[in-house]
Amino acid sequence: MMIQKLHDKFLFNFLAQDAENAANVMEAGHGYVVPGITSDNFNSAEGAVKKVKELKSVSNIVSVGLGGSGNVDNWKKVLDIAAASEPGHLNQPFETAAYSLGYLDGKDRQKQLVNALVKPAGEVGKIQLANSGNRIKVEEFISIASNLGIESIKMMPVNGTEHLDELIYLTKVAQANGIRGIEPAGGINASNIKDILAGVKDIEVEFFMPHIFGSTIDKQTGETIPGKVMELYEQVEGL
């Protein structure tokens, strides 16, 4: 993604309630932030499209997530939102990522980065497909993903550092095979963010973007708390 990165590698994805919240979160994260929404927070694609366009008034790139802890059933809603709003980044299960990429490219629009969601398999060297549940060797998966033109892999839920060794291995193999980005999600917070980033800091992947939601969101307002974002940033700025 063409955006300034911390240590030329790291970005952070936070949800944003509105343009003001996005601007405050981006400031707290020193600009290394991609604000986003999740499709399950909207009754219709039209409402989500309106919100994406609002957020794009303060950020060139907005991320549209599946929501529902990576609910793969939301893939079409996310695609519809992206087709109408050109957010720049959207989340898809691996099984629909290549289709979504082709569909959006076919619309002759600004290029969108489509990630491919997989799950940890509980074993270093393997991943689990988010939709089918099938387990596959990382090397085989990355070869398929690369050949399909997929540029970023999302691993969720990593449960903080529970699957860190798997995440590091995935990042190494992905980087060696031309995948641009890795995006971990699930249980990431200020207590473990430094360990996660330290594990991949020497791997020359183009971008590594943790999705950090629950630990930073005000449960009353739904806004991401800038102070929580600043706390995360301070944990890793000197990495």
Topology:
Blueprint lengths: L11 E4 L3 H10 L4 E6 L6 H11 L6 E4 L9 H11 L2 E6 H13 L6 E8 L5 E4 L5 E3 H10 L4 E4 L8 H13 L4 E4 L8 H8 L6 E2 L17 H11 L3
Parallel strand pairs: 1-2, 2-3, 3-4, 4-5, 5-8, 8-9, 9-10
Antiparallel strand pairs: 5-6, 6-7
How would you describe this protein?
Strands 1, 2, 3, 4, 5, 6, 7, 8, 9 and 10 form a ten-stranded mixed sheet that branches. The protein has 239 residues and is an alpha/beta fold. It has a domain at 12-114 and 185-236: TIM Barrel. It is built from eight helices and ten strands. It has helices spanning 19-28, 45-55, 75-85, 94-106, 138-147, 164-176, 193-200, 226-236; strands spanning 12-15, 33-38, 62-65, 88-93, 113-120, 126-129, 135-137, 152-155, 181-184, 207-208. The mean pLDDT is 95. Strand 3 (62-65), helix 3 (75-85) and strand 4 form a beta-alpha-beta unit. It comes from Lentibacillus salicampi. Keywords: Lyase. This is Oxo-acid lyase. One of its GO terms (molecular function) is lyase activity.
